[in-house]
Write a structure and sequence with these properties.
The protein is α/β, with parallel strands linked by helices. The protein is built from 9 helices and 7 strands. The chain folds into 2 domains: 141 residues, Rossmann fold, CATH 3.40.50; 33 residues, no CATH class. The strands form 3 sheets. A 3-stranded parallel sheet has the order 3-4-5.
Length: 185
């Protein structure tokens, strides 16, 4: 996303080099980033948080307020509530919905289950699965292996910035040696 400049190599999205681009330029190309720490606007209402992020692009799925509210019905119930007064789980849902309002082609999720109650994690999991069913491409960075197992198709295990294993999640589940060595499970 341009937040940390790479030391070497190339980063391409849809065939275009994005290394060296500013974050807003990368976002305009169709990459949406859901921050780990939620970063909502606490002094704006739920609706205002969503409307401020609305982005119209040709050849992109059209995320509207109504579509965001269908995915996260609790946000519709909280439409006029200040963002800063939402629970942690509701703020996470708002962050995801706000990012979707930018009509991304690729959604980057950074630790979406962190610090959330198990029931809320399950709700977020259901919404991520709904996005996958709609065809959304999602890149997930997650330490909660249960959440990751439930929503992911492929896994990449990183150690000190290098891929040490990659494959389908079913392969990972069937290989307790890899899970023990790299994930401590």
């Amino acid at each position: 996303m341009g937040l940390t400049p790479p030391r070497s190599g190339s980063i391409k999205f849809c065939g275009e080099e994005i290394r060296g681009k500013q974050s807003f330029e990368i976002a305009r190309r169709g990459i949406g980033f859901v921050y780990e720490n939620r970063m909502i606007f606490p002094d704006l209402t739920v609706r205002e948080n969503l409307e401020i992020a609305a982005q119209r692009r040709k050849n992109a799925g059209e995320w509207t307020l109504e579509k965001a509210y269908r995915l996260f019905p609790v946000l519709k119930e909280r439409d006029k509530q200040w963002g800063g007064t939402l629970s942690g789980g509701e703020q996470q849902m708002l962050t995801i919905a706000r990012t979707l309002m930018g009509n991304p082609r690729l959604l980057l999720l950074d630790e979406p289950s962190e610090g959330l109650a198990p029931l809320v994690v399950r709700a977020i999991e259901e919404q991520v699965l709904a996005l996958k069913r709609e065809g959304m491409t999602i890149l997930l960075s997650e330490q909660n292996s249960g959440f990751a197992f439930n929503v992911s198709g492929r896994a990449y295990i990183l150690e000190k910035g290098h891929v040490v294993w990659q494959g389908h999640f079913t392969e990972l589940r069937e290989n307790p040696e890899i899970m023990k060595n790299f994930l401590g499970i």
